[in-house]
Amino acid sequence: MAEMREQALYGDLDTSVPEIRLLALLPSPQPNAPLVGQLQVVSLHSPPPYESLSYAWGAPEFTEPIVINEQTRFVTPNLDSALRALRHEEIPRLLWIDAICINQRSPQERGHQVTLMRTIYSQCERDLLWLGPNTHVEQTDYINPSEDQLGEGMRLMRCIADKDMSVLGVMGHKWAAYQTKWRERWLRSLKRQQSENDVPDAELAARIEQTEAELSSAANDSDSAWLLSYAEQTALHQILTFPTVWNRLWVMQELSLAPKIHLVGGRHTLDWDIISGFLGDTPYADAFHATYSHNTVQSCVGRIFENVQKIDHQRRIMKEITAGHRESKLMDVLARFRDTQSSDPRDKIYGLLGLVSGETNIEISYELTPQQVFTSVTAAIINETGNLDTICQRPWTSNTGFTSFTDAQEGSTGQDKLPSWAADFSKGGQIHLFAQRSIFQAGRPSCKVPCHVMNGSVLHTKGTVLGRIGPILQQDSVESPQQGADSTWTALEWLKLYLGYDVLAASELDHPYVTGETAFTAFWRTMVVDCAAYPMTRLTKDQVEEEDSAIRSKWLQKLNESTGPETKPSHDGDSFINPGIHTMWMRITSDWVFSITTNGLYVLIMPPAKEGDIIVCLDGGKVPVVLRPLEETSGGEKKRYQFINVAYVHGLMDFGTGDSTTLREKLGLEDQEFWLV
């Protein structure tokens, strides 16, 4: 019966034209009057002027009535709130709204209309981004800001963008006061050090003099920097962060494509160009600061404006694509908006395809399972890029490993199980070894494309086995990650477990690593993945030589200070001279585990890697990967492997550059084929 009513209301669209439906929202001067509208079919070749609506569906509760073509339908409370606010008093308003203009009960129509999204949003006059308030939702600042709060946020944004000195002057005075307070505290600390020194320190005296000079001119700081109050931070958050619409995946595409955008908060509106102009006005935008946890003061652009920055960046890319100056690759788009949400996991792909330049050869079908979609998209990215960045870099994982959402489903088989090599696009996460940035080149630069996927799930690859993971001495297994600053998990403890403290003073002849450097040098370089940050760069020969002698001396000093056989050495967080290397030190020791392969290679691995897994450089993979051999199959089938995650292997991170012949021969490494399941 429901399907018959849907068919009577919607009918069939001509997919060859192409056609869409628009809603003519009829006017009413009374806010509480029933919502009434008419659907009309139009061709995208010559549509009438219309606006599109971007909003958060909210809970899937279709409780609010709207009369469409004389039939009563029900929409979500959020949409009801938006339509009542947008309805004109005297003339109809022509809108494209996904929940109303698409027959949601027809998978075939949904799939077809998704293919038109780029055109639908590109051809609208403007996109109306509904921030609220949603009158059916509990009123709280952090979920559903009120109309007045949304209006205040928009007013402040205009003042900042217009450089209104009545607002900036107050912020500048706050910044100057903060700087004065900070410098006074720093000056007291310096003078205390000076009074405690028995011998005059010329460098310390110079720093005191410099700080005193900065204090005398602190008032001028208000000319170049501004500090937002808590109330001002909150006002901006209420329009740019708190509304749930900013987390909706479909909105990312809608806003990136629309020629113009109006943020709507009840009766208040804000033109997107005001925000975009502010973000593009550097260093002015970077001069705004705010106080965060532990009273730390940081630039507010990356915190408050994080959502709009991503969208504004994509909007600029789309304009450059139109002008023929830019490409927008599938993997880049999926990674950029990976932390957004959609009720249907397939929409993590379908909802962003309109932002990709060129052909993707991805079938849009809601009759496919999410696992089938994710597998085919991973293969499509491999074919598009000619490499395995989607496997080696993929940011759709958590800190605790690369296990997919279907791995936990016991008994899942066939199309219900996501292959280990396929990216789980339903997740957000972080990039672990910067594969896409070409920091490393462990595998050969490219892989064979189109890639060979057998039975829709088994990926055929080639590569070189570097070694097999040996015993993990920190614990029985690496199934559970160890976080925090527990000294058991510090690098010195790992050094003791695997190599012994004697390597600290050993010469190159006593404990050489496979690269020819000392074991200790290879160890600490492993612990920072041979990089400094940020920006991410490989260590130079001079940096290695400078740090090597300094860290040896410091660690030996700490060991000498220890007393008793059971005493653990104390640790100084500033072990490295270069702050960029120290940044990597802190990043790596919180997520990774050190081990040594059975053929003597120093490696960093992450859960759920374990002893017996193999480390491989795959063709087209910029970083090594951990594979788990599965049981031998009968009937002469190829041996299969499960992809676990990525790994760092010291001395072999440039294995694919062509300079690895000596190491390949020294370690007896050979190429082979792999079938990943």
From TrEMBL:
Pfam families: HET. It comes from the Eukaryota. Residues 50-254 form the Heterokaryon incompatibility domain. InterPro entries: HET, HetReg/Transcr_Mod. This is Heterokaryon incompatibility domain-containing protein. It comes from Clonostachys solani. The lineage of its organism: Eukaryota, Fungi, Dikarya, Ascomycota, Pezizomycotina.
